[in-house]
TrEMBL record:
One of its GO terms (cellular component) is phagophore assembly site. Residues 405-432 form a coiled coil. Residues 13-137, 139-284 form the Ubiquitin-like modifier-activating enzyme Atg7 N-terminal domain. It comes from Molossus molossus (Pallas' mastiff bat). This is Ubiquitin-like modifier-activating enzyme ATG7. Keywords: Autophagy, Coiled coil, Protein transport, Transport. It comes from the Eukaryota. GO terms for biological process: autophagosome assembly; autophagy of mitochondrion; cellular response to nitrogen starvation; piecemeal microautophagy of the nucleus; protein modification by small protein conjugation; protein transport. InterPro entries: Atg7_N (IPR032197), Atg7_N_1 (IPR042522), ThiF/MoeB/HesA (IPR045886), ThiF_NAD_FAD-bd (IPR000594), Ubiquitin-activating_enz (IPR035985). It holds the Pfam family ATG7_N. The keyword Coiled coil applies. Gene3D superfamilies: NAD(P)-binding Rossmann-like Domain, Ubiquitin-like modifier-activating enzyme ATG7 N-terminal domain.
Length: 622
């Protein structure tokens, strides 16, 4: 079976090593475990694989790990033998390279040796087959380094005892050795479920079985007959003729207390004892790959920096963006950065030649032939950037105070349809962003959102100033206000503190609460520079990012939209959420590179959120 030893009648027994076969599903499951469960935990994890003795000729003996490798209770595939192992997943490439592979191998060998000495391997032969998987995975799912250390073994009946004569053949489990061979005086025959296809050599599982036989049975027999059982089906016909049988002389190690020297590191593609690199990028669905990669940075936040961050609240939020201009484009990109999957645009404008340089969702081709509708083009671009996002666009107008619509029955009917559709959109979303150009265009959505108790985030720009604010979230009708913000009751202001401290979310004002007149047509009798939003180019990016970050902070607060408003006075206090303060407003002054966090109470005569207005809205009389 190999080169001759000192005795001319004996040959050195050699074994065909396993070739590790790690399925793509295994790497995907490892990635999910690493991101969501293991995180920075490097403690060993139990895993399981299997091997098969029926592969076609020419194939190597494979130890297979699939997506179910992490479920120790998962059933082993039919006609396959299980192999149990340990996963060592390192956090850094340096830790992977510095791992003491010799020590890991010796530890696994000692575990097998202890199971042999204690007899546990007779009860559960799977213990003879242990493998180690040492990995460092790059979490973009494109590359993974792995070292597979094997000190291997079995499952189906991985090992068994055989007794036969001219007329009969009997098989038994290892634990029945004494009774099964009590009348046997000359030789014993042992069987092994052999995954190897080589005509002259047995597979790797036989190695540890022979150690067990030499340690426990060598005092009775100096040699054993070995049947390497191979069972395959070809063209519907079962065939075991490629099984091999031979006799092995056992070494002298009966009841030896010392563990034999262990071997088993699998060679890499170059035939050396280095790590193996697996490139999975060509095997993965690009859309699934993108989806996992998009979530990567977010989930890494939860590992160490913000372990209490509830990403599900953010990712599952359905966001309605009213306005697909400079603010809308920047808000949408930041929402995607936070993993938000449901984004809807509403706008009635078309893309002009001045837009692409300031509005990052558009390009020059979108301006041709009169320009594409902004809402539709923005939704299409989001899906091209990330196919996993559910982006929709509605090319529609929002009726505004001071802008007459009753020129004809057609325009009046269209306005009614627009209002109905706007109500439906606000009803079906969780967060409404007001990102339009004019003040009056924000009024109707603010009224509808207040009546439906939706979280409203408003952003508006000046030349070098901006305001980002959350509207007060009105308490449900007939709901006791004392039940709201129970964890943050309104306390009397301390001496010297602001009169606007500790204001709960349901008492906060909206964008229109400081108005002394109703909104009207702000573009009438205005020059071009007064009609357009003329602002410093970087202002929209700052305000858009702050609008999304304010939404995320509100969602992370236990009270959500009812959270007590943080003010500038709270900057040195303990923040109410893991992400920090939850302000009512952020007013920025780019000329001074300064922000303030004012708080304002709701105005009981407000044209948008006062009780009289939203009572009328509830009664559908507005």
């Amino acid at each position: 079976m190999a080169a001759a030893t000192g005795d001319p009648g004996l040959f050195k027994l050699q074994f065909a090593p396993f070739s590790s076969a790690l399925d793509v599903g295994f790497w995907h499951e490892l990635t999910q475990k690493k991101l969501n469960e293991y995180r920075l935990d490097e403690t060993p994890k139990d895993i399981k694989g299997y091997y098969y003795n029926g592969d076609s000729a020419g194939l190597p003996a494979r130890l297979t790990l699939e997506f179910s490798a992490f479920d120790m209770s998962a059933p082993t595939p039919a006609h396959c033998c299980p192999a149990v192992g340990t996963l060592y997943n390192t956090n850094t490439l340096e830790a992977f390279k510095a791992a003491d592979k010799k020590l890991l191998l010796e530890q696994a060998a000692n575990e097998i040796w202890e199971s042999i000495k204690s007899g546990a391997a007779l009860e559960n032969p799977v213990l003879l087959n242990k493998f180690l998987l040492l990995t460092f995975s790059i979490q973009d799912l494109e590359h993974a380094y792995d070292d597979l250390c094997q000190a291997e073994g079995v499952p189906a009946l991985p090992y068994f005892l055989i007794k036969y004569d001219e007329n009969t053949m009997l098989v038994s489990l290892l634990k029945h050795y004494s009774d099964f061979f009590q009348d046997q005086r000359t030789k014993i025959t042992i069987g092994v479920y052999d995954p190897c296809n080589l005509a002259q050599y047995p597979g790797w599982p036989l190695r540890n079985f022979l150690v067990l036989a030499a340690h426990r049975w060598n005092s009775s027999f100096q040699s054993v007959e070995v049947l390497c059982f191979r069972d395959r089906t070809m063209q519907g016909v079962r065939d075991i003729t490629h099984s091999i049988i031979f006799e092995v002389k056992l070494p002298e190690m009966a009841f030896s207390p010392d563990c034999p020297k262990a071997v088993g590191w699998e060679k890499n593609q170059k035939g050396g004892m280095g790590p193996r690199m697996v490139n999975l990028s060509e095997c993965m669905d690009p859309k699934r790959l993108a989806e996992s990669s998009v979530d990567l940075n977010l989930k890494l936040m939860c590992w160490r920096l913000v372990p209490t961050l509830d990403l599900d609240k953010v990712v599952s939020a359905k966001c309605l963006l009213l306005g697909a201009g400079t603010l809308g484009c920047n808000v949408a990109r930041t929402l995607m950065g936070w993993g938000v999957r449901h984004i809807t645009f509403v706008d009635n404008a078309k893309i002009s030649y001045s837009n692409p340089v300031r509005q990052p969702l558009y390009e020059f081709e979108d301006c041709l032939t009169g320009g594409k509708p902004k809402a539709l083009a923005a939704a299409d671009r989001l899906q091209r950037i990330f196919p996993g996002v559910n982006a929709r666009g509605f090319n529609m107008s929002i009726p505004m105070p001071g802008h007459p619509v009753n020129f004809s029955s057609i325009t009046l009917e269209q306005a009614r349809r627009d209002v109905e559709q706007l109500e439906q959109l606000i009803e079906s979303h969780d967060v409404v962003f007001l990102l339009m150009d004019t003040r009056e265009s924000r009024w109707l959505p603010a009224v509808i959102a207040a009546s439906k108790r939706k979280l409203v985030i408003n952003a508006a720009l000046g030349f070098d100033t901006f305001v980002v604010m959350r509207h007060g979230l009105k308490k449900p009708k007939h709901h006791d206000a004392r039940n709201l913000c129970a964890s943050h009751p309104v306390a009397p202001a301390d001496l010297g503190s602001s009169l606007f401290a500790n204001i709960p979310g349901y008492k906060l004002g909206c964008y229109f609460c400081n108005d002394v007149v109703a909104p009207g047509d702000s573009t009438r009798d205005r020059t071009l520079d007064q009609q357009c939003t003329v602002s410093r180019p970087g202002l929209a990016m700052i305000a858009g990012a702050l609008a999304v970050e304010l939404m995320v902070s509100v969602l992370q607060h236990p009270e959500g939209g009812y959270a007590v408003a943080s003010s500038s006075d709270d900057r040195m206090n303990e923040p109410p959420t893991s992400l920090g303060l939850v302000p009512h407003q952020i007013r920025g002054f780019l000329s001074r590179f300064d922000n303030v966090l004012p708080v304002s109470l709701a105005f009981d005569k407000c044209t948008a959120c006062s009780s009289k207005i939203w009572d009328m809205s509830d009664d559908e009389t507005i």
